[in-house]
Amino acid sequence: xxxxxxxxxxxxxxxxxxxxxxxxxxxxxxxxxxxxxxxxxxxxxxxxxxxxxxxxxxxxxxxxxxxxxxxxxxxxxxxxxxxxxxxxxxxxxxxxxxxxxxxxxxxxxxxxxxxxxxxxxxxxxxxxxxxxxxxxxxxxxxxxxxxxxxxxxxxxxxxxxxxxxxxxxxxxxxxxxxxxxxxxxxxxxxxxxxxxxxxxxxxxxxxxxxxxxxxxxxxxxxxxxxxxxxxxxxxxxxxxxxxxxxxxxxxxxxxxxxxxxxxxxxxxxxxxxxxxxxxxxxxxxxxxxxxxxxxxxxxxxxxxxxxxxxxxxxxxxxxxxxxxxxxxxxxxxxxxx
Amino acid sequence: xxxxxxxxxxxxxxxxxxxxxxxxxxxxxxxxxxxxxxxxxxxxxxxxxxxxxxxxxxxxxxxxxxxxxxxxxxxxxxxxxxxxxxxxxxxxxxxxxxxxxxxxxxxxxxxxxxxxxxxxxxxxxxxxxxxxxxxxxxxxxxxxxxxxxxxxxxxxxxxxxxxxxxxxxxxxxxxxxxxxxxxxxxxxxxxxxxxxxxxxxxxxxxxxxxxxxxxxxxxxxxxxxxxxxxxxxxxxxxxxxxxxxxxxxxxxxxxxxxxxxxxxxxxxxxxxxxxxxxxxxxxxxxxxxxxxxxxxxxxxxxxxxxxxxxxxxxxxxxxxxxxxxxxxxxxxxxxxx
Lengths: 337, 337
What we know:
The structure is a homodimer of 337-residue chains. Helices cover 47% and strands 15% of the residues of chain A. Chain A has helices at residues 16-29, 39-46, 71-77, 82-91, 104-115, 151-169, 190-199, 227-255, 259-275, 302-317, 320-335, and strands at 3-7, 32-37, 56-60, 97-100, 125-131, 137-141, 176-179, 206-210, 222-224, 284-287, 292-295. In chain A, strand 7 (176-179), helix 7 and strand 8 form a beta-alpha-beta unit.
């Protein structure tokens, strides 16, 4: 049975959604969950659930990384944090993967330096799921594990993202695109132009550049970019969504005066929020590290945690890391890394 | 009287919105408009309006730059295009500024090479207006005039954007921010970290880094970034808005069944669209070129054209270019350009 270590102390509302999500996952997917955190706190939360017959254990970790901790400080100083203990469980083979909704920078640093990167991987990349128009998902990477990426890094991101998309979303030939500022090969900056010329030589279903406008359209499955751009893209999307929802609320309030109207608008608004909710898609894997690591949004609810556990288990079952290592080392010559 | 040359052939729906917007501007703002384009086409459109007493003239230009033309080709081959003629009117002092809703890349190239850049300016920058939560406007630059910007370029963008915001929006000490991936000085990439350390030494109201999420929040008035990032930011916002509006339509359709409901939703939706409409804010000026140049969205309607003409006139009246040249040359030492 696949075992997933869950950082029970990581998220904004920890440990409640972490514990509930783990219980849901253990019930629904028949896997074993190790809840890592301060035992008294985690046990108290666990007592709220019916867990008889489920494979859930608590693994003690005395320290907690705060959202405000600096990644390197947290990595160096809090060796007994729930993130460290979860990463060591993976590194020592006691778990097949880990999930954390904690401080993204700190979790990435911990996962990367406790487990190490795969031998052929130059830089791990965070692969963020984005909802697309037709109910699908696109994966954008790097979503912020690196800045100032070089061409060889972006090429590796493309290969890792493609393998991930194939394995997790069951698409045989995912469409891989490069995020740029024009569709033509010559549009973009130095980095994207050179990356384009490399990607088109690889045995990928490379569809060329896409513009920012296409990120949510579903025209690409895997969207490759530098981590600075990826982070800006995600946060700008969030900001634009927030802005639009705010404007929408005002418009609905001023137009729908009656109680019926306001009830209708409430339910429409709820459905609308659900449709743009990222939590269904289960967190962002950190691709390229030796241990399977899935990082959830700090505000993850139980459903998001459950789905992150599912994704980690699927990655472990699909032996994703072995496939990444195999394909990258085979491509070593082609990509001239 | 201020004279503005309008490229009547540039936009997606040219010349209709260009001509109507120019008539509205001439009527509302008491300025003179030179409509530049193929005379027969422009005159036919002009005949639809009551223009007696308004100062509107048609200036002939035989060629038209298509949206699909490459900027350099268009610049070199179509010397009698409406954009070229408008830029020459500015360069020769027959107009105080130009407005075009045409092919952005081509118009930037034409404006830049017909008029030249200001002596102290290393790179012109496109300054795009963004609507913010409280009904305000933020200006983001560079929105795509350059890629692979250097530190000195970003510093100049900050100075030019601040002068523009002061002059056009009447804010005495606009808040200037750098777009990055974390608020702390050390967050970001090489470019933003070094730019941060330069900006904080300048006599600007520099509020530090903002993240993508803050772009629409109104926390900054002037948002500085490389043109690649700026272009991605604008297009991702557009894509996210489109995605959300699509999801919203679906939610409203499935929830508000009755005719009353659908009418209510239609009017709420319309108000909502208006509130996120960029056209009120009048196009993006290309700052740093000798001639005042304002570039509208290709899909500009008459209102957007009218507002772009207003902005161009305000820039001319405020002697914006003289102020940019003065302040940049005074800062020459401080910014170590």
